[in-house]
Amino acid sequence: MELAQSIFDEMFGDFLRPDEVSFAVLLRGYGASDPPQWSRIDTTLTTMRIKYGIEPSAVSFNALLEVCCRTNDLDRGQDIIDRMAADGVEPDEFTEEVVARRRALRSYLRKALL
């Protein structure tokens, strides 16, 4: 991930402007670590918002929910769903697919956002 982050920083420093999908790739990469690198995920989200003015949509939140489902981190998954609700982010067609494997998160999503 260090190499991926350095390439990202180099590419999107002066030449190009990243989009949310670019950030979602980083989020998934940090989430694929064992254990997930939540501090790096938080830093990436902060950079996305502050440096580039990109607010997370369902694309970013789905990436985070995928990590929570894979690691069975239900508390953090509920926090992410709460953050989606607080930010006014509507789930997209993939959000329910992402949480389908974890009944508790699927139920929580439906109660909080659907």
TrEMBL record:
It comes from the Eukaryota. Transmembrane segments: none annotated. PROSITE patterns: PPR (PS51375). InterPro entries: PPR/CCM1_RNA-binding, PPR_rpt, TPR-like_helical_dom_sf. Keywords: Repeat. PPR repeats lie at residues 57-91. It holds the Pfam family PPR_2. PANTHER family: TETRATRICOPEPTIDE REPEAT (TPR)-LIKE SUPERFAMILY PROTEIN-RELATED. This is Pentatricopeptide repeat protein. The lineage of its organism: Eukaryota, Viridiplantae, Chlorophyta, core chlorophytes, Chlorophyceae.
